[in-house]
Design goal:
Elements (H helix, E strand, L loop, with lengths): L14 E3 L5 E2 L1 H10 L6 H10 L1 E2 L9 E5 L6 H14 L5 E6 L2 H16 L2 H4 L2 E5 L6 E4 L4 E6 L12 E4 L7 H7 L10 E6 L7 H12 L5 E5 L15 H8 L2 H7 L9 H10 L2 H7 L18 H5 L13 E6 L5 E9 L5 E10 L4 H12 L3 E4 L9 H6 L9 H16 L3 E3 L3 H9 L2 E4 L2 E4 L9 H16 L12
Parallel strand pairs: 4-10, 4-11, 5-8, 5-9, 9-10, 12-15, 14-16
Antiparallel strand pairs: 1-11, 2-3, 6-7, 7-8, 12-13, 13-14, 17-18
């Protein structure tokens, strides 16, 4: 007599948002992984196909790639394969894998090391493997490097990574993003991965990425989630515990949220989890039902739809721009932004540079001034960037120092320009993330951007706001920024 058929998890995610594409390097990466003994499941291969889609110029279609799936399903195997591809197929020069906990980063290092050690073709291309505690990594004969780090405010600063993998993204905070995201700004074809199980109320970065994925239409985001419906637990509120447990025992929910069910996760083990865990924890840990920040906590000032409708990746300034400099309160990152006019007369804004720390700012500003001869360089001397006034003026930079009233005017002007569709931007992730998490603070009869108590680094947004204000005030050409250097 035949036994009960094994239930296999759904290989198609419940949520999938991917821009259109016609070609991908996913199959090549899967083949390379298989040659090293890592055979991917169909759902893992499908995600890599989406994430590694290429445009006609051979660039990644998606700058950001996010996947949410419950623990022990095989998310780590996706990252192992992507790392092998970056090292041995794509000639990426620096790859960074980070996790919230050091033990997670160490475990990933050991898994990647084993794949390389056990594959002659890969091992022959390695110059050395560093195994010292806290300095784990791989260096190839080509000079390509792979580093494994535990996230902190300073980790990753100073590295210019082609690939950043941010595992355990439910614990990804603003200071970590400030340290890691700017490292990619100077790379020609960078890619950023978020990997996580279901999020929490304070998972702001993961929640923002997920919200964009659920909304769809993001031209540079690949987002996939294997989970039960968001209202799975909410529909059971007020019911007896036994009835809740019975509803959560629905094998269809298990399969929906766990693509590795019947492959490396057994029904028997999931049943034990259900008996042991409270319903809320079972729903989060096994069914992928998270509790993300509410919609009211994101895009609280400028509506997301309004901002995204103004994206134009081909937009550019004609003539001299205005520059602005800002530093976040933690001093973990700084930003330089530009504003100017497009050929059609609309205002163009963009983040020119956004990196960790502040030591790079003065030299970069002088370099930009010599090249672009801006109509103004603005800095809020009363904010965290005020410490740069002396060094900048010492380098010959004449600064526009706005008053508090003028800062409020700048915020109002930016808001009005967006509402009137008189602005275009480049859809840059640091600026979008800042706007998603930004809030107002009262300023007499106006308002300005709140700086503290936020989940994101808003210095790119503050710099863009001040650059737009400075351009509209000083574009008449009566302002000489750097006589001593020109």
């Amino acid at each position: 007599m035949r036994g009960t058929p094994t239930l296999v998890g759904d290989q198609t995610p419940r949520i999938r948002s991917v821009p259109p594409y016609t070609r991908t390097s996913g199959p090549e990466v899967a083949e390379l992984a298989a040659s090293a003994g890592l055979v991917l499941d169909p759902w893992e291969r499908n995600f890599l196909d989406d994430a590694l889609a290429e445009d006609d110029d051979g660039k990644w279609v998606c700058f950001e790639c996010g996947i949410i799936v419950s623990r022990q399903n095989g998310k780590g195997a996706i990252f192992e394969a992507r790392i092998l591809g970056g090292l041995f197929l794509f000639d990426e020069r620096l790859l960074l894998y980070s996790a919230h906990e050091f033990k997670t980063a160490t475990e990933m290092f050991l898994r990647v090391k084993a794949l390389i050690d056990n594959t002659d073709d890969l091992r022959r291309r390695v110059r050395r493997i560093m195994t010292a505690n806290g300095d784990e990594g791989v260096e190839l004969l080509s000079g390509a490097r792979l580093r494994f780090i535990a996230r902190s405010r300073g980790s990753g600063r100073g590295f210019s990574g082609d690939l950043n993998i941010l595992d355990e993204a439910f614990k990804l905070g603003p200071s970590e993003m400030a340290a890691l995201l700017p490292t990619m700004s100077a790379r020609p074809n960078p890619q950023l991965y978020y990997g996580s199980s279901a999020g929490f109320e304070d998972s702001y970065q993961l929640g923002s990425v997920r919200a964009r994925g659920m909304a769809g239409g993001d031209p540079s985001l690949c987002f996939v989630e294997h989970s039960a419906p968001d209202d799975t637990l909410k529909k059971l509120e007020g019911k007896p515990l036994a009835e809740i447990k019975e509803a959560l025992a629905d094998r269809r929910l298990w399969a929906m949220a766990n693509p590795a069910l019947g492959i490396r996760i057994t029904e028997d083990f999931v049943a034990k989890e259900l008996r042991t865990l409270p319903p809320e924890e079972f729903a989060r840990e096994r069914l992928g039902v998270g509790t993300y920040p509410t919609e009211g906590e994101t895009w609280a000032v400028i509506p997301e739809e309004a901002w995204r409708s103004l994206a134009d990746v081909g937009s550019a300034i004609v003539g001299a721009p205005a520059f602005a400099i800002d530093v976040n309160p933690e001093r973990s990152a700084a930003a330089i932004a530009a504003a100017g006019r497009r050929p059609d007369g609309r205002l163009h804004v963009e983040v020119i540079d956004h990196r960790g720390g502040t030591g790079w700012v003065v030299d970069r500003v002088v370099e930009l001034i010599k090249r672009w001869k801006p109509v103004a360089v603005v800095l809020d001397a009363g904010g965290p960037a005020g410490s740069l006034v002396g060094p900048l003026e010492g380098a010959g930079v004449k600064l526009v120092i706005p008053t508090a009233r003028e800062l409020g005017q700048g915020c109002g002007q930016l808001y009005d320009t967006v509402a009137e569709q008189g602005l275009r931007h480049l859809d840059q992730p640091p600026l979008t993330a800042a706007l998603a998490g930004a809030e107002k603070r009262p300023l007499s009869d106006a308002w300005a951007w709140a700086r503290r108590g936020l989940s994101v680094d808003i210095c790119p947004l503050v710099a863009v706001t001040e650059a737009a204000w400075a351009y509209q005030r000083h574009s008449s050409g009566d302002y000489n920024v750097l006589d001593s250097v020109w």
